[in-house]
Amino acid sequence: MNFQRVVKPLAAAALIAATLAGCAPIILGGAATGALVATDRRSVGAQTEDREIQIKAEANTANNLPDAAHVNVTVFNRRVLLTGEVPNDASKQRAVEIVKQISNVRGIVDELAIGPASSFGSRSNDAWITSKVKANLINTKEISANVFKVVTERGDVYLLGLVSEEEGRIAANVTSRIDGVQKVIKLYEYIKPEEAQRLSTEASKNPAPVTDDSSAATVTTTPIDTETVTAKPLSSPAPISDAPIKPGPSNKTGN
């Protein structure tokens, strides 16, 4: 019996189940969704705000889009990545408009595809790819895997994080060589190497508590400019591409 053939579907299914259930990050490969990470270069406040934006976006898209829509929301530093599938262009535009109405969102990357929702097999494969990407980043000594957020959709891998240009380049190159990866899309916010080191040091000294409290999130309606929305097509054959998010107005929260 081929051991890998048996283990791969089971591991992928476990990753999917954990993600759908909102569990804590899985060691050595699970995508960290919904939990605050101790070595994250974002502040605790920024991580909390990102989580609140994600909760609002997920709830609002689920309640206002057709049942056939399958929308994944990823938030990093108040920038929102939309992936998945919607039945038509109207639903695609509606999803973007819904996110634009959420307070403090400062940019959107719309990578929604028009078509039927992906199958369980496709999502399992994406989860398996994400696990391999995370494992390979962990095994790359030149970078810290904890500063990257990894999202996989239909074999395309999106990399997010507050990173130096060198860190971003290394992570993208490592990811592009992994079996099953169709394309790597860089959605980084670049910072200077010394700033990256400072933020990592501060994060390690002041670990953030792991939490997943959705009760504090409330829906607000502060729209952002249309110019903050980008929809960069996933072109081929280039294996690595940049998909920058245009800056939007700063919506400050009251303290």
TrEMBL record:
Give positions of region: Disordered.
197-255
Keyword line: Signal
Superkingdom of this protein's organism: Bacteria
Q: What spans are recorded as compositionally biased (Low complexity)?
A: 210-231
Q: Which residues form the BON domain?
A: 47-116, 125-195
Signal sequence span is 1-24
Q: Is this entry keyworded Signal? A: yes
Q: What is this protein's record name?
A: BON domain-containing protein
The scientific name of the source species is: Pandoraea cepalis
